[in-house]
Each structure stands twice: as C-alpha cells, then as structure tokens.
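Trying the structure run again after the queue cleared.
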Amino acid sequence: MLLIGLTGSIGMGKSTVAQRLRALGLAVIDADAEVHKLYNGGAAAPLIEAAFPGTTVNGHVDRQKLAQWLLAHPEDFKRLEKIVHPLVFGAEQALLQAEARKGAEMAVLEVPLLFETKGLERVDVTMVVSAPAEAQRARVLARPGMTPEKLAQILSKQMSDADKRARADYIVDTGVSIEETQAQVDRIIESLRGRKGSAYARFWA
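Done. Tokens:
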C-alpha cells in the first residue's frame, strides 16, 4: 500500500483536495479530525484538563480556552503535543491497518504539520497544497473567531509555504478554479497507480 502524505499550511485548500481524493476512492485519514474526536469526549480531554486546568467543560476540550492558555503560555505547546501526538498516531495506525486488510492500493494521511513533525518517514510520497499568500490570508481571516494575531501565531508554528513546496514530491495549486485543482489531483493519482510503497510496513503494520 502506497502512503501519500497530504499537507499544506492553513487556508491552502487541503479540504478541497482531500474531498477529491475521497471521490477517487482513496481513504483520507485526517489528523485534525482525529484530534477533534480525542478532544470531544475522547481520551485526550482528561489528560489536557490535568495538564491545563480549566480548559475543558463536561469532559470536552474547550478549544477557545485552550487557545487562550497557549497564547499566554506558548512554551506549553510542547506539553500539549506530548499528550496528543501518541493518541493521534494510535488512531491513524488503526485506520491504516483497516485499509491494508481491505487490500487498498493507496491511502492518504492528511497532516498539516507533516514536515514540521518529521512525518516524512511515515509516508512514501508527499503532496503539498499551495495557494498565493493573499488568497490564503483572505480564506483564513474569513473563518469565525479568527484574528490577524491568531493567524500570525499559527503561521509561526508552520514551515513556510515556499519551503514546503521545495520539499514536495507533488504540488497542488488551489489558487485556480476547483475544476483545475481537481484535474491536478487526478493527474497525480493516475501517475502513482501501480507504485509500491514501503512506509506502511516500516511504521504502521
């Protein structure tokens, strides 16, 4: 099974690309979605409350309160990562193993911080979603509750788009029409048909 690492900075259009990959029949395992489950009554919530008191409500992580805590204590990002990353890895592993049992030819790991968290060794090829900076900024600032300060903090934790593009095996440009973006994805997947991967056996099996 060939593992594709899907990544890109905030607001670049990963969801649009992931939707197309699913339409092509590939399983897309979304790290952020797994975090969402872990935060909402999942295993991460009590651990986060113990580490950052007052950041959960009724067994669910209050993302606003957690964000405020991290804004005031940026050094605690590392503590949070040590809690969440092993749990996410376990969830991803279970989903990938299920795909392997089905005999899937490919699977996609959607990881926003793929390069930053040394996730490269866990996938066979990388697909970076990119768009012009002004499009990225407009998309992100249109989100509810987003501010220029929050965006600056998020971007400070992410590798620059230029660096990601330089390291990518494949780049999907979402600064064009949806049809053109989808066509790019289709061409990439077609080029990968029949290619063997080794990352699954090394890290996930």
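The chain is about 55% helix and 15% strand. Worth checking whether this holds up in the mutant runs.
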